[in-house]
Amino acid sequence: GLPNRSAFEENLSRQLGAVATCACDTQECLSAVMVLNLDDFRTINDMAGYAAGDVLLRQVARHLATLVPDAYLARLGGDDFAMLLRGVDQRSAVALGEKIVTAIGSAGFEMGTARYSVGASIGIVPIDQDAYEGAASSVSDVMKRADRACRVARDAGGARVSVYHPEDSDILARNEEVMNVRVIQEALRQDRFELHVMPIAPIGNGKGNDGQNRDQR
Fold first, then answer.
1. What does DSSP say about strands 119-127 and 161-163: parallel, antiparallel, or unpaired?
2. Under 8 Å CB-to-CB from 159, ≥6 apart: which residues?
3. 187 φ, ψ to 5°?
4. Closest Cα to residue 107, out of 51, 59, 163?
5. What is the pLDDT of residue 134?
6. Structural contact between residues 15 and 86, judged by C-beta atoms closer than 8 angstroms
7. What pLDDT does residue 217 have?
8. pLDDT value of position 182
9. By the 8 A CB rule, do 128 and 31 touch?
């Protein structure tokens, strides 16, 4: 019952355009994108089946809509959700993210006679005129940043909020990891890997302090 990724990105594109034309740093010029991933959702699918997982996704969607009624809420795919928050600064966005993490983690989701609980990892990207030192941000840029911040939160153990900062060490490490994967994939496609062998040989005369030949021990 939620908008999909395409609809979310269209809405985000309009918001980026509005922020770019803001004449001053007013509340209307502030916004943020929040990407949420459900921790251990695959376990629910494995334990209860994909039909139960779909039921849980719908329950989470309704829960999020209740928690953040003013946000533009969408499901990106799988167990990933996104929210566009208007009129909020970074501090308010983080406070809201932490509220959602607590609420999702403490909520129980009923499916038949079973009750399941999941956690939430959240990545936040603030959107304002000063966020990236005046550099224009495309929809793709913002979504990639939010996704990477969410992955940092998940890799740190989940059930937490991570804010994207270009100079953040965790974000930089994640960016480097992504770039390394691309380099490896490109090398595989071009068949550029070579196998090298380093021979193992005894040092000196091959004998230890006790006079025994190492090759015979």
1. parallel
2. 39, 101, 105, 119, 120, 121
3. -65, -35
4. 59
5. 47
6. yes
7. 47
8. 77
9. yes
Query: Which letter, b or e, does each residue of 146-184 get, where b requires 16 or more Cβ atoms within 10 Å of its Cβ?
Result: bbbbbbbbbeeebbbbbbbbeebebbeebeeeeeeeeee
Range in 71-75, 135-139, 189-193 with the lowest mean pLDDT: 135-139
Give 132-182 as a DSSP string. TTT----HHHHHHHHHHHHHHHHHTTSSSEEE--TT-HHHHHHHHHHHHHH
Q: Please tell me the predicted confidence (pLDDT) of residue 169.
A: 59
pLDDT at 211 over 60: no
DSSP 53-94: HHHHHHHHHHHHHHH-TTSEEEEEETTEEEEEEES--HHHHH
Structure tokens at 198: 């380093």
Is residue 17 within 8 Å of 115, Cβ to Cβ?
no
Tokens matching residue 105: 């983690």
- The residue among 43, 39, 100 whose CA lies nearest residue 67 is 100
- Checking if the pLDDT of 136 tops 60, the result is no
Q: Per-residue pLDDT tens for 39-93?
A: 989 888 888 888 888 989 999 999 999 999 999 999 999 999 999 999 999 999 9
Please name which of 105, 53, 52 lies closest in space to residue 75, comparing C-alpha atoms: 53
Alpha-carbon gap, residue 97 to 85, rounded angstroms: 11
Active-site residue list:
79
